[in-house]
């Protein structure tokens, strides 16, 4: 493949996964978690990766983030191979252990800016802006231990956005929240995405969540050798009306694909 | 808000006072009704004797002598222990090399090192400072290294994908996350230091609370023994409270376990 062509910007894909595979080797022998995973993520899209537990979703995200290396195939960002974590890929983690307990919410949001050596005043102003974006104006002085689970996830999202990454990688960010908080945060994320048009790779095992947020939904086949089974475009306007017939119809399509996975038809 | 905090503090202090009051009461009853021997004086004469020793400036002298040694040795031990612990926790090769050392020496108590310390350093200040530093350093190393190892993986990963260099990960994530562990190690080391100082002064010293205990035994000044014991308990208690306060102030806000 002509790598120089990518460098000149001839390719529209922001992220390319090209025949990516991952085999873990450990005490219990080799386990092929992901096999031949191929996908192009276009600039500005909201891609939801959906799959049953253990099918390899986190593994895919960790490889895109650069936390783990593929054992087969390759991953490109802007045409350049990904080989380590970097500021161009913001990550929102499933749990909230990734927040810094010793920093205030505002300082957590400004952490990436501080790493870049941005001055205090400018950093503060920018962090305040993102604090407002996630709906936590006035709560910036609190420490993570003084925030609810939903608020912590908002801070994580603000922290990732404040760093202005090329793509936002989110691993079941709302998985640990109650249904009501989850619905609220889904709405907010949708609004933020519409405002910023940030490219998002969002992992979930919640079909409704995927249909409500995504411009495309990718369904994974379960492991060993988890891979992309089908990609369904969701051409519905935002904000999405979850009780509309159109939404129901997309939901049914995705559900049918997942259903086979749950009930073992390969 | 503020006033509830203050009320809580007052309640705590009142609790301590009541606790000590009860301790002295039981001591008094035990000495006057149960034991009734000159070898176990009740608190009254002991406190009277303490007052005399304070007026003569003798008690302060011993306390200051002991505290100075503890302070110096403790600071020296911490100053060595913290960086070494951080290195062991951060770099595998350092761990492989130094872990046998810490695992070896921590089973040789400072008390067992008194003989060597006296041979090497004489009965001057150096031997005591060495022993306190010795008893401090391994506890601090072990808990610091454990702290570095306990930094959550996601905390480090989050920093990496925000653009942190290795040095930034260490300075801005690993180090602050380890502070509560370092302070807890120092607190443990401090109580060891009290044990060690008395033993060292008993054996080889010209002053200090340990020496006071030893002399009092030689001359059968039973009240003096109890004065020294009470002083030790009080000092240890005060130091430990101070440490707990520091840990709370630095880390308590985000670490509910300390
Ligand atoms: N470090 C590892 N070593 C060995 N096997 C691993 C490792 N990480 C994941 N696996 C295996 O790879 C497979 C995929 O794991 P992964 O965490 O990607 O699943 P997932 O789709 O994110 O699941 P969930 O929805 O439960 O989070 C699983 O079978 C898991 O046991
Ligand atoms: Mg997962």
Molecular structure report:
The complex is a heterodimer of chains A (266) and B (258). With 266 residues, chain A is of the alpha/beta class. Chain A folds into 2 domains: 3-88 and 165-265, 3-Layer(aba) Sandwich (Rossmann fold); 103-164, no CATH class. Chain A has helices at 3-7, 57-65, 105-109, 111-115, 120-133, 149-162, 179-196, 207-213, 245-262, and strands at 13-26, 29-42, 46-50, 72-77, 80-81, 89-92, 167-171, 199-204, 216-221, 227-233. Chain A has a 6-stranded mixed β-sheet with strand order 6-7-8-3-9-10, sandwiched between helices. In chain A, strands 2-1-4-5 form a 4-stranded antiparallel β-sheet. In chain A, strand 9 (216-221) and strand 10 form a beta hairpin. In chain A, helix 5 crosses helix 6 (149-162) and helix 8 (207-213) packs across helix 9 (245-262). Residues 1-11 of chain A have low confidence and may be disordered. The relative contact order of chain B is 0.11. Helix content of chain B is 83%, strand content 0%. Chain B has helices spanning 2-35, 43-55, 58-90, 92-105, 114-121, 125-149, 153-160, 166-203, 209-218, 222-252. In chain B, helix 3 (58-90) crosses helix 9 and helix 6 (125-149) packs antiparallel against helix 8. With 258 residues, chain B is mainly alpha-helical. Chain B folds into 2 domains: 1-39; 41-251, MetI-like fold. The chains are: A alpha/beta (266), B mainly alpha (258). At the A-B interface, strand 6 and helix 4 of A face helix 7 and helix 8 of B. The complex binds adenosine-5'-triphosphate (ATP) and magnesium ion (MG). The site of adenosine-5'-triphosphate has 14 residues of chain A, from strand 1, strand 2 and helix 2.
